[in-house]
Write a structure and sequence with these properties.
This protein has 425 residues and is α/β, with parallel strands linked by helices. It has helices spanning 22-30, 75-90, 117-125, 137-140, 157-165, 181-194, 212-216, 262-267, 294-308, 326-340, 349-352, 359-372, and strands spanning 7-16, 19-20, 37-41, 49-53, 103-108, 127-128, 131-132, 172-175, 200-208, 250-261, 274-283, 315-319, 345-346, 375-376, 398-399, 404-410, 415-422. The strands form three sheets. Strands 1, 2, 3, 4, 5, 8, 9, 10, 11, 12, 13, 16 and 17 form a 13-stranded mixed β-sheet that branches.
């Protein structure tokens, strides 16, 4: 049923390892491009070679206004702002004049590590005989650090700067639930509109997992840090549900979407990209450390599908979290088997890794673009099934007549979220 109060997506903005902007992102997806590569090798190449996907063609000066705001934005915050800027344009809001009191912002965020360069001079000033003397920090660091340094990387700064930029005077919030954050932010933004507190919401996500400091601060044992191997370096490494997978490939980037009611969108002549039919969040204790919780994921998925009134047969595909780590994949595969066993499964992490708080919205955007084109895209590199993941992983591009997507996100710590989005045909 079509209703004036349906929550619809009218704009998407992406700053990703596959490209900046919806068109570049979509083209790279259709070309089945993998952005995962060797990122950094530390002192022992056999033990500390890290793999991931980074945004290499980004310049915040092209998107951030006023320019003076750049000095109080770290690179990650600039990426988040730029994604919202692109989504605002994509939604046709550049020349529109929505009521600022009825606009809100919700961002999925996380620990933003900041740039090592920001602290270099302060650390050098505290040194003696080429060694860091921690006792000197309290007296010396303030003279060698930007006074507003901390504001450049606070997790709530993306939502803050986006709200200022679009003059959003309505609800403003930031969620930090790791990989589940994006879908939870989407659900909160939808709930804000449904209860009448806003007419239009900008919802986004920022993930920053590939800087050296962030790579050091990670859950042990589940990230891909296998040694550099010349013989296999060109082979896919992030292969969710495949027996050859080697662990999570870190990623980074920003993504944003504009949500509003169908009636509000039609009143201003906006194009509808997708319709949010159902959303749900759950949490459960992992039975194994850093393995997630299948029961929470099953419950969230069933709830979202019941709200949407869709069956597994009506799904174009399941857009999986696809961590590419053995036990996390087993948990997710068990959940998918319980709710949509025969439905094709695509894991877009095989294209651009796992971007923390941004990954859910990244993967949802990829699914929407694929289904709007009439396709279910493959999980790149998948060819050796893991017998403990008995699901229908898509291996080649398929045409589809279905237009519903089930998107799953979950964390190693047990948080889970699911949404169902319908793409207009």
């Amino acid at each position: 049923m079509v209703g004036e109060r349906d929550i619809v997506i009218t704009g998407m903005g992406v700053v990703s390892p596959l490209g900046v902007g919806r068109d570049a992102f979509g083209a790279a997806l259709l070309a089945e491009t993998c952005a995962v590569r060797r990122m950094i090798t530390l002192s022992n190449a056999e033990r500390t070679t890290y793999y991931g996907a980074s945004v290499d063609d980004f310049d915040g000066k092209l998107y951030v206004t006023p320019r003076k705001a750049l000095k109080v934005m770290g690179r990650e915050v600039q990426i988040a702002y730029s994604a919202a800027h692109l989504a605002w344009q994509d939604a046709g809001l550049t020349q529109a004049a929505p009521d600022p009191e009825r606009i809100g912002v919700v961002y999925a965020s996380e620990l933003i590590p900041g740039a090592i360069e920001d602290l270099c001079q302060a650390i050098i000033a505290c040194g003696e005989d080429k060694r860091m003397v921690h006792a000197n920090w309290g007296d010396r660091f303030a003279k060698h650090i930007f006074p507003l340094w901390m504001l450049r990387s606070l997790p709530n700064m993306p939502a803050c700067h986006v709200g200022i930029a679009v003059d959003a005077r309505g609800p403003n919030n930031s969620l930090a639930q790791d990989e589940a954050s994006g879908l939870l932010a989407l659900g909160e933004a939808a709930a804000i509109i449904q209860r009448g507190s806003a007419d239009l919401m900008v919802v986004g996500g920022i993930g920053a997992r590939v800087t050296p400091t962030r790579l050091m601060f990670r859950a042990p044992g589940i990230y891909d840090q296998h040694g550099f191997d010349e013989a296999t370096n060109e082979q896919p490494r992030c292969i969710p549900f495949d027996a050859r997978r080697r662990g999570i490939a870190a990623s980074e980037g920003g993504v944003a979407m504009v949500l509003e009611t169908r009636g509000h969108a039609l009143s201003r002549g906006a194009s509808i990209v997708g319709v949010l039919r159902g959303y749900s969040g759950r949490c459960g204790q992992p039975l194994r450390r850093y393995a997630g919780n299948r029961t929470a994921l099953i419950s969230a998925a069933r709830d979202a599908m019941e709200q949407a009134e869709v069956t597994p047969q009506q799904l174009a595909h399941v857009s999986a979290q696809g961590f590419s780590e053995k036990y996390l994949d087993i948990e997710e595969a068990a959940a998918i088997t319980a709710v949509a066993q025969d439905t094709p499964v695509t894991a877009f992490s095989s294209y651009f890794g796992t971007a923390g708080a941004a990954c859910g919205l990244f993967e949802l955007a990829a699914s929407v673009l694929a289904v709007r084109g009439g396709y279910t895209l493959p999980t790149l590199g998948y060819s050796v099934p893991d017998s403990q993941c008995p699901i229908n992983v898509c291996t080649v591009r398929q045409t589809t007549r279905q237009n519903n997507i089930l998107k799953l996100s979950f964390t190693p710590h047990g948080q889970a979220a699911a949404v169902v989005v319908q793409c207009p045909t």
